[in-house]
Amino acid sequence: MNRQDLKDYRFLKARIDEKLNDYEEQFARVTKVTSSLDGLPKAHNKPNYTVEELIDSSNELVVLLNKDIIKQKEIIEQLDNIENEIYHTILYLRYIHNKTFEEIADKIGYSYYPTCRMHGKALNEFDKLDKKSKKEQDRANEKVLL
After folding, report:
1. Cys-Cys link to 5, which of 1, 16, 18, 96 (CB 3.0-4.6 A)?
2. Signed CA dihedral, 82, 88, 94, 97: sign only
3. Rounded to 5 degrees, what are φ and ψ at 30?
4. pLDDT tens across 87-144, in order?
5. How does residue 41 score in pLDDT terms, banded at 50, 70 and 90?
6. Per-residue pLDDT tens digits for 65-87
7. 37: helix, strand or coil
8. How far is the C-alpha of 32 from the C-alpha of 28, rounded, in Å?
9. Quick one: how many helices (H) and strands (E) in the chain?
10. Under a CB-based contact definition with an 8 Å cutoff, are residues 126 and 79 in contact?
11. In the prediction, which pLDDT does 83 show?
């Protein structure tokens, strides 16, 4: 995971919430039972189609959510590998909890500008972990090929 993945974490979270809300709305529409008396004949199997569509969309939702959740776990695992606790705290508060730099500075006991500088260093540290993990994966792939 690189720094862009870390920055996109909050959007990933929002996308998951959006998908779940859409599914809940669709579920509510399908399960809502009302009768309308307009005198026109109705298809007897129409609810079955909507239930089938709901099941299909729920299966698609599960696949998409699994991908997003796996990506979130990978980001947090890489973040947890940062050894400097202040860097870890800054990145965690900024990208996982969506805090402002003022809130982060207050939390860690530094002023605003040193916090911003440490944030840049923390992102560089995060990128180093990404490069290190990619090198390890390349080595493992080379061993498999040999």
Report:
1. 1
2. positive
3. -70, -40
4. 999 999 999 999 999 999 999 999 999 999 999 999 999 999 988 888 877 787 777 7
5. low
6. 888 889 889 999 999 999 999 99
7. coil
8. 6
9. 6, 0
10. yes
11. 93
Torsion, Cα of 91, 95, 96, 100 (10° steps): 90
HSE-up of 128 (CA within 13 Å, CB side)?
Answer: 9
Q: Which two tokens stand for residue 43?
A: 């298809």
Of the candidates 102, 124, 132, 133, which has an alpha carbon nearest to the alpha carbon of residue 115? 102
User: HEC states along 79-126?
Assistant: HHCCCCHHHHHHHHHHHHCCCCHHHHHHHHCCCHHHHHHHHHHHHHHH
Residues 91 and 116: their CA atoms lie apart, in Å, by 11
